[in-house]
Amino acid sequence: MEHVELFFKSIFIDNMVFATFLGMCSYLAVSKKVSTAIGLGAAVIFVLGITVPLNWLLDQYILQEGALAWLGPEFASYDLSFLSFIMFIATIATMVQLVEIVVEKFSPALYNSLGIFLPLIAVNCAILGGSLFMQSREIASLGLAFNYGVSSGIGWFLAILAIAAIREKIRYSSVPAPLRGLGITFIITGLMAIGFMSFGGMLTGGDDAVAKEDSAVEVKIEEEKENKTIADNTAQLIQ
Amino acid sequence: MALKEKLHTLKEKYRGTKMAPAFNALHTFLYLPNETTHNGTHIKAADDLKRTMNTVILALVPCLLFGMFNAGYQHYAALGQPVDFLSWDSLYIGIIKVLPLVVVSYGVGLAIEFLFAVIKGHEVEEGYLVTGMLVPLIVPIDLPLWMLAVAVAFGVVIGKEVFGGTGMNILNPALTIRAFLFFAYPTWMSGDKVWVHGAVERAGTADAISGETILGSYAQNQEVLYSLSDMFYGFIPGSIGETSKLLIILGGLFLIFTKVGSWRIMLSTIIGALVMGLIFNGVVDAGWIGETSKFYGLMSVPFWQHLIIGSILFGAVYMATDPVTASQTNKGKWIYGFLIGFISIMIRVFNPAYPEGVFLAILLMNVFAPTIDHYVIQANIKKRMKRLKPNVA
After folding, report:
1. Complex ipTM over 0.95
2. Cα dihedral A217/A221/A227/A233 (nearest 10)
3. Does any CB of chain A come closer than 8 Å to the CB of residue B323?
4. Is B176's Cβ below 8 Å from some Cβ in A?
5. Which residues of B are less than 8 Å from A199 in CB distance?
6. Is B9 among the domain residues?
């Protein structure tokens, strides 16, 4: 039950893109075509599925306060959690290199279409975010950590798949010139986040969820306005 | 005739200028243009956008009228001085409360449409006609008019015009407007006080009106005050247009008969809702959930009753079938509708943050409709390639 709950929670409720707005750079850049979006989404699932449990092990046995107790009682007071960022990033970078080698070997077409974005997964905030959320939410076991990694990846995959299909659909829409490209993508993302609000508050229950919802939405709407101004500014810059 | 000629001369006067679309639109909204194309082949068909939109509006008018009567009926019933349903007293409340909502919705929305048409230099599109009618039907009666105006502006600009206008949007504009209202002004959009006229002002005073909603009563394991026939015919508080299931069904049949609405989506939405209801009933029957659970009340509602409480039917008939934002492929429509019904009931039962989830479920499936279409089309391509292959080899 715990597993099922975590699974659905990380796909729909705490969706990486729509709830925390993580991993936006590759989400915006590689979502022009469904086929490449699927490739990148699968890569993200894979990398998250590996790095989160690995980082969980690191966190449990090296980084946490008292994690080094297994070396001997004199190490029990050590707290290496200030190293988590650098350790997590090192793990992620290594794993991404590995994925890159594997993909280049087995699927050159995908490798070519992903281009620069595969190495960029290394700095994709969704990946680091996954590990850091795993740490701060105190995921209890290795199995749950793996579950969390994979399901967050699936959530991100669904998001990029949906927006890629939408962008293919609106390819022939007469979007006002200043909004074409990234501008309209930001707006679509905001609107999609409204759709994903349907799951907000589920499983958590209670009235405090309602209160939280409200403030979250206000932030989101402001964010949308901000996105619009950002898009306008970039459009002006480009011109 | 004088008006027609005046409009015609105005149209001729502004022909070719920036304001031309606005006058063209005024002319064609009211009269049939008698211009024809002179060269090239063209198809003569009566079911243009204007006709389609008018059909939907026609199907909505009974709901609106019923909503107007019901507004007054519920108001007086809650005050403890019941009046006849079809009486001037109840219609009067309807006129002073509901008509302003309609006027503001159309006024603001069409003004923005005209503005965009003039700026972008294309003809005014009829897309807002239906949205403008739907919006007053899905809001609580005491909603302040300025809130409606703000929401309509948001919905039309962000929900539709930035995508290039009618036919290009990805989310249903009417539901975008409702979602905006719901998240921006939650106290005006949900709870047990907003559905009957006058309940908000009286809250906390001696003659307060208690307007416990049906879904609210179920969720709290309380006795429901309304009979099933009341729910079906619509003599219950609720959003203005969604109470009368009978009229919605008639409107739906009308839409199916005129082929404006997709019967696949309506049917599959209802099937989806029934399946989810059955699953919940099964969970209760199997004893997996105790009577103390906060989900027990809504889960134990007989599955078919989910259709006559809340707004699932209204959503299925008028919202999910929006041809722009729904799935375009026939197979996709089945999947799309089924998931709408399924998720609607899931949100209704499972999500304590929202009393009713139909509009969010439809928005969510609007988001995924292009994905569904993509896969249906890919599957078709694959199937036909397979069929082709033996011939090639």
Report:
1. no
2. -150
3. no
4. yes
5. 347, 351
6. no
Give yes or no for a contact between B160 and A174, defined as CB atoms under 8 angstroms apart. Answer: no
- Does residue B27 form part of some domain? no
Residue B110 in any domain: the answer is yes
- CA-CA distances (angstroms) from residue B290 to A5, B218, B221, B280? 19, 15, 12, 13
Asked if B103 and B133 count as a contact pair (C-beta separation under 8 A), the reply is no
Assess whether A99 and A62 both reside in one domain: yes
Contact (Cβ atoms closer than 8 angstroms) between residue A49 and residue A149: yes
SS3 at position B169: coil
CA Rg, chain A, in Å?
Answer: 19
| pLDDT (0 to 100) of residue A19 | 87
**B351 inside domain:** yes
Share the mean pLDDT of chain B.
84
Q: Look up the domain containing A227 and give its range.
A: 206-239
User: Which positions in chain A touch B365 (Cβ < 8 Å)?
Assistant: 195
Tell which of A8, A161, A174, A198 to mutate to test the B interface (max B CBs under 10 Å): A198
B184: nearest CA in chain A? Answer: A218
B324-336: average pLDDT? 92
Counting the structural domains of chain B, the total is: 1
Separation of alpha carbons B161 and A6, rounded Å: 38
d(CA B357, CA A183): 29
Q: Pull the structure tokens for residue B44.
A: 């003569």
Search chain A and give the residue with CA nearest B187.
A214
pLDDT in tens, A5-31: 888 888 888 888 888 888 888 888 888
Is A192 in the same domain as A214?
no
